[in-house]
């Protein structure tokens, strides 16, 4: 049954995405670990972690596209789930430091010693085990999303109002995590990690391993998402996006459908955050900032909403641009990002992938626009329902 | 009148929108297997009546019972649909980004929970049923077309097809022939009469030749309540009906 599920989602686009990811998974480790440093083909460890970071963002974008592109829920708070997954991983990494911290306390992280805490708060218990942290990476964002969605969807909050309360959610978490007495390191967050699963977190081998884990998570999530979209459940989701009330009159309990996609999406975002933290070496409350969630929306819009592959493409391209701009012209980045969003909304309502579909549809041997973006929302519905 | 043997029982149903009474003490009963045509001027409350039956609008007062026992005023839309009440909307609403086939597949009677739809694999019977409906609604050649690309009349037919796929006990059909040619109107009348054998049907329509072709009991609504009831000929002869509706 599981194979059938994954096969269902395997169209040409999925094949392309998975092939690119597989190529990266082979080439990057070889070019980093085997190709000697002097060679023009060598990829530095810095670049590997940068790529890994982009792919974590791509996973966040994929999660967002699942709910925005296919269910019409424009979440302006998805980075909250990402950050929660990141904190769960960060807590594990903090416990791994053990007595190697500045204060040398074998149990308490440095910031707790600094605050004169005597023992570990109860919610830190268990995070010395990787398996426990790994479960929490899914459970914490998932449970929050479930509770949030339960109330929001049952009260039939939709559209702009729903977007605003997702934004409020991440903002509330931002304020909470800034507080020192929350026990998550206040505005410094969690950092100075040493080891993951007993491996030196700075070692090239570990870095490549984390990169590969990110690719695997992205590929698996992509397959899950495209399997869902291709299933009858996915068709119900798209129907809910465009005409929710009509779906109800067919006897579908649309709330539970939205809740399913929403919770799954939050779990994916949590995994993305968990993979992000060891690769960038820090997690702090700024990840909860409303702007982070809005940036994720821009990635999806740029790549093409409701296409999955577009979300990945958009996240990687925009973040590549961000790395470039913040290095070369730091003061221009925000303008560039804002301008990009305006341009895409005005001229490319279906994003880069939509543009690609249009171009290939003009070619004589192409299969036509329906082959690719069949379920993609058109520009108008994006304007009316999405925003 | 007792509610026991009825399929649908409305008693004293009222709905106000900002003080305006769209339904005013409306009472109406339907027997199992019956087909009923509802006519009445614009704004008479015909669509609103369907809204209160299907849970879209909550009545301010009154009783609505399905099969003599289930109180519909307490249920949500999806539960009401799952009891076996299907609806076609006045403005045809189909799932535009989906193909004709997928629209029917979504409507097809089958378990409605997310887990069941996630693992749904179309069975041979389901396939045959959809093929059947495609033939009945003459949409077979367009099965792979996106529903959004159909003409107005074809969307009407698709929505009727979706109703058939749902296989409800009671069908509420709001203005099925709006935007259809005479020939299509005639076909639709025949189709609805075919359906009526196995199901109960309420049809709202302004097209009098269509109502005549159905040849069933007619209820005239005006200002939110029943003005007259009976055969088309008898209500057409009713002076009040002529005044508020037919004579205009
Ligand atoms: N949601 C609503 N809010 C406010 N007023 C409404 C609402 N729904 C219906 N009405 C009003 O209630 C009255 C009855 O409307 P309804 O749509 O039931 O009429 P109808 O008999 O179906 O008319 P038509 O033949 O034009 O379809 C109308 O005056 C309409 O404006
Ligand atoms: Mg009406």
TrEMBL record, chain B:
ATP-binding keyword on record: yes
Keywords, ordered alphabetically: ATP-binding, Nucleotide-binding, Transport
GO molecular function, a single term: ATP hydrolysis activity
Key word Transport present: yes
Domain ABC transporter: 8-248
Recorded GO CC terms: plasma membrane
The protein's name in its UniProt record: Urea ABC transporter ATP-binding protein UrtD
Source organism of this protein record: Azospirillum cavernae
